[in-house]
Amino acid sequence: MAGCTPGATPAVQAVEGHVPRVGVDVRLSAVDADGKGRQAQWQGETLALREPPIAGSADIADVRYVLDQDKQPGLQIRYRPEAHQRIHDGTAALVGQRAALSVDGRVLMVATVKGPFGESMMLSGLPSIAEAQALAKHITGQ
């Protein structure tokens, strides 16, 4: 099961440079319970993703493959400082509601927002190390 948690692992907190490639669309979007928004599929469910997204590719300072605290493959996403407050406010307004992370229109994860975050997030529960590495390479080219 995929999920997201706030926070950065210590090894990647101070590292810059793995930004999304031009043309790669990474989005953190609210899932609209009333069905208003851009349609997307996830695990057999049709979702409506609100526009504009809470965060997009331009807000990302770093994306990289990591192993989470349970040694499961995941992606660490750190946001640019100028986006922190906007993302924090956007996720604070969604506490108890669902948000989706998508790459190039493909929903990777849907989770209930437990609390606000703005600096970083961890996408965990990817099926394999190879898939997590391939996804990071697709996003960043590295």
UniProtKB/TrEMBL annotation:
Superkingdom of origin organism: Bacteria
Entries under Gene3D superfamilies matching the protein: 3.30.1360.200
Domain annotation SecDF P1 head subdomain: ranges: 43-138
Name under which the protein is recorded: SecDF P1 head subdomain domain-containing protein
Record lineage: Bacteria, Pseudomonadati, Pseudomonadota, Gammaproteobacteria, Lysobacterales
